[in-house]
From TrEMBL:
GO cellular component: cytosol
Subcellular location: Golgi apparatus
Main location: Golgi
Pfam family of the protein (one): RGP
Keyword Lipoprotein recorded: no
A GO biological process held by the record: UDP-L-arabinose metabolic process
Domain of life the protein comes from: Archaea
Taxonomic source organism: Halorhabdus tiamatea SARL4B
Protein name: Reversibly glycosylated polypeptide protein
GO MF: UDP-arabinopyranose mutase activity
Lineage: Archaea, Methanobacteriati, Methanobacteriota, Stenosarchaea group, Halobacteria
Keywords attached to this entry: Golgi apparatus
Length: 386
């Protein structure tokens, strides 16, 4: 009997139909769809019935959670006090998918997908991600004198969303390292690159995309970032192991008093990279590529969402980098980073108090996971008693 060990998390309010292409890709490449459970995270104004019908038609087991369903799920698991961890109307609602995964120990892996992506037909999308997570062997390693690795380093002068401006024009060193204990697999993107609004404006596009487009030729060998080096982690095409969930909270963007947005996956990636470095894990980058078909929207709208956090993004990785060196678990690193965020910000940084807020939420995240563990123990004990 097939073990259902992969939880696929999809935030969507626009285009749940994109999942059909991923299901077809799995069938074409012989990947067993019975391994997948899909968590669609949506809103009360969306047609959840149509989403559920789509899952049935594609032979995908799964569940749809709008805001009301999420509230009921929190109540059912005795964690209603932590509903605030999932921000309203934000891509960071992917954190709910992480909670769902954590609550069901059959899931060994998670996959994040965005609804404006599509797999390349000639590549086994899910199989490649899982192969990456199992990879042991030599792999290209990239590092720089700025402690940052540009995941688009083989393109011409493109820097992805979240890459600090102060770390640009870095001098890279490329070598080969023995790689094992891969804890996350980041697939990159053809067509529309994942850029921030400032860089999109500089590229001459007012519709939130980019004049410059990427093709397969822009991506060479798969790689890891050297230890002690950071990189942008984008959640549109990402697989990860269950063990990293405590250090992978998608930070509470958009729905906050400072209107900071667009850095949820970027800052969670910093936390994940720090924890992986401390604990001997690696983040695999490159394949499987997906096609990023970002819909046109105002670049200035994206800029308005990003500007409140731009200065913080120049500094937050340095706070993360000095926390958790002696930790022995992903939760331990996350707890140390939370303490640093609560106390380490410079008051002169724009919206510095938001980092304190993020530290408090990260502490709550860890407490919430502990409560979910306790709830699972209670349920198991009740079953045995029956």
């Amino acid at each position: 009997m097939t073990t259902q060990d992969v939880c696929v998390v999809v935030p969507t309010i626009r285009n749940h139909e994109f999942l059909r292409a991923y299901a077809e890709n799995a069938r074409e490449h012989g990947f067993d769809l019975d391994r997948l459970f899909v968590v669609l995270v949506t809103e009360d104004f969306c047609d959840t019935g149509t989403m559920e019908a789509m899952l049935d038609e594609e032979g995908l087991d799964g569940a749809v959670f709008d805001e009301s369903d999420r509230e009921a799920w929190f109540d059912e698991h005795g964690i209603a006090a932590y509903e605030h961890l999932i921000p309203a109307a934000s891509h960071a609602q992917t954190s709910f998918g992480l909670l769902y995964l954590w609550a069901h120990d059959r899931f060994e892996y998670g996959v994040f997908l965005d609804d404006d992506t599509a797999p390349h037909d000639d590549v086994d999308f899910f199989g490649t991600h899982l192969d990456n997570l199992a990879y042991e062997g030599d792999l290209t390693a990239v590092e720089s004198d700025e402690q940052w690795v540009n995941v688009l380093h083989e393109t011409e002068d493109l820097y992805p969303r979240g890459y600090p401006y102060s770390a640009m024009d870095e001098d890279r060193t490329v070598s080969t390292e023995r790689v094992e204990n891969v804890v996350a697999s980041q697939g990159l993107w053809t067509n529309v690159p994942d850029l921030d609004a400032v860089r999109i404006l500089m590229d001459g596009d007012l519709q939130g995309q980019a004049q410059t487009r990427t093709t397969r030729a822009d991506f060479g060998e798969d790689f890891v970032a050297g230890r002690g080096n950071y990189l942008t982690v984008c959640s549109m095409n990402l697989a990860f192991r269950r063990e990293v969930v405590p250090a992978f909270y998608q930070f509470p963007m958009d729905d906050n008093p400072w209107d900071v947005g667009r850095f949820d996956d970027i800052w969670s990636g910093l936390l994940l990279k720090r924890a992986a470095d401390v604990l001997g894990g690696r983040i695999y980058n490159g394949a499987p590529l997906c096609e990023h078909n970002k819909a046109p929207r105002s670049t200035f709208g994206d800029l308005a969402n990003e500007v409140a956090g731009l200065e913080l993004n120049e500094h937050v990785w340095k706070l993360v980098d000095r926390a958790g060196a002696d930790a022995d678990s992903y939760a331990g690193v996350a707890r140390a980073v939370a303490a640093e965020l609560r106390t380490g910000a410079d008051d002169e940084w724009e919206n510095a108090d938001f980092l304190t807020y993020c530290g408090e939420y990260l502490d709550d995240w860890l407490d919430c996971l502990a409560e979910l563990d306790a709830d699972a123990t209670r349920r198991a004990t009740a079953v045995i008693a029956e």
